[in-house]
Amino acid sequence: MTQLPFFDWSVDEYRQLAASVLRGERGSEGVAERLAEFSHLFGGHPVLPVNRGRTALRIALRAFHQERPERTEVIVPSYICPAVPESVLAVGLTPVPADVGSDLNLDPARLPGVISSSTLAVIAPHIYACPAKVPQIEAICRRSDVFMIDDAAPVMGIQIEGRGLGTFGDAGIHSFSQSKTVVAGDENAGGLLVVLNPRFEKKMRAAWAELPDPTEPIRDALGFLWDYRLRRYTRSPTYYWNRMRQRNADEAAGSKSQAKMSALTARIAAAQLRSLDRRLAQRREVVERYHELAVRTGMAAFPQYSPGRYLSRLFFSLPGGLSTSEVRARLREAGVDTRLAYPLWARAGHPESSAARAIAPRLIELPCHATTSEEVQLMWAKFSSVVREFTKPQPASPSSVARAAG
Ligand SMILES: Cc1ncc(COP(=O)(O)O)c(C=O)c1O
């Protein structure tokens, strides 16, 4: 049960990987054809397949900025994957925070106070696949004459008001990186830019056409399995190997690279998209199971829960005063692998980050990939026993009793 992976591949994905390796596929040939059968997920809008979600963000932002060079600010939620503000900075624009609501998504009520004459665009992500209020955000952006990116990096196949997430505003994005709904790898795992505003189609297509082919798709895929599937065995060798190779430095350089989607990624993504409905249904069951346990034991809040909702990652909010790192360390000893929330990017004390600052430090992620109901039950039993251990009133020391009496 320990160290569950952050993705769930079936035999099909491994078969596609093997086929791609055996055929020696190195470039981006055949990608558009493989993804064509899923055009209903993107409302039939044009889709540009790239190596990462952040490449899609950059192409969209550059196209907007070419049209309005005098506008240099992009509104980004104060709680979000660091790749989002980093992408804004990477194209020479300034990310401006807008605070989040209790669901951890951009709160549309904050926008009127944050949008200014310098605002070029708003990025509205569905964090951990929890649907953001994109219909309202789209209406505010239209009224305020600013562009909007519907950042559906973590989610595919979910609709609001009859429209797919990723199809609101002027451009949408998706990512196939680890912990998303469709997972094809981690480095250069694939992403999509959905062109929603036809005015930008020519510019975005031209930018996409200039991207190089991916350089090492097979190495990326095998590296992913080494890091995420075989972690239990490869953790220590990877650590020493990385130190030897200064891989962090390489990765920082690698994450800057932009390319088209590889043929290998498109094969794996297509295999997953074909079983998307089943995958969504399975995860919804895991979400319900966790929610029942959270309510029954009252050990932690589940801020993104809503009945029947799909989530790509499951975060629970610890009772106030508990140290997330201490709880995680105890859970690791008990065999439960957890992760922390994203770090906050807006400067401390920024008025548009106070809600994010109150919520994020208390969040802890419990595994949900490749997880059965029995495993959820077992994990929750361990989780609640650790939380109970930390919330148990400590016996009063003789000196504190004496102080209280005095
Ligand atoms: C909301 C959001 N946007 C964009 C990205 C960037 O996607 P990628 O890692 O494929 O570049 C991510 C994830 O990393 C994300 O969570």
Which features would summarize this protein structure in a list?
single chain, 406 residues, alpha/beta, Aspartate Aminotransferase, domain 2, Aspartate Aminotransferase, domain 1, 2 domains, seven-stranded mixed sheet, three-stranded antiparallel sheet, 12% strand, binds pyridoxal-5'-phosphate
CATH topology of the largest domain: Aspartate Aminotransferase, domain 2
Total domain modules: 2
User: What topology, given as strand order, has the largest sheet?
Assistant: 1-9-8-5-4-2-3
Q: Give the overall silhouette.
A: globular
Q: Give the full name of the CATH homologous superfamily of the largest domain.
A: Type I PLP-dependent aspartate aminotransferase-like (Major domain)
Distinct ligand kinds? pyridoxal-5'-phosphate
Structural class: alpha/beta
Please give the count of helices: 16
Q: Based on the structure given, which CATH architecture of the largest domain is correct?
A: 3-Layer(aba) Sandwich
How much of the sequence is in beta strands?
5-15%
What string, H for helix and E for strand, traces the elements in order?
HHEHEHEHEHEEEEEHHHHHHEHEHEHH
Q: Any idea of the CATH class of the largest domain?
A: Alpha Beta
What's the pLDDT, averaged over the residues?
A: 90
Q: First CA to last CA: what distance? A: 51 Å
Q: What does the main sheet amount to?
A: 7 strands, mixed
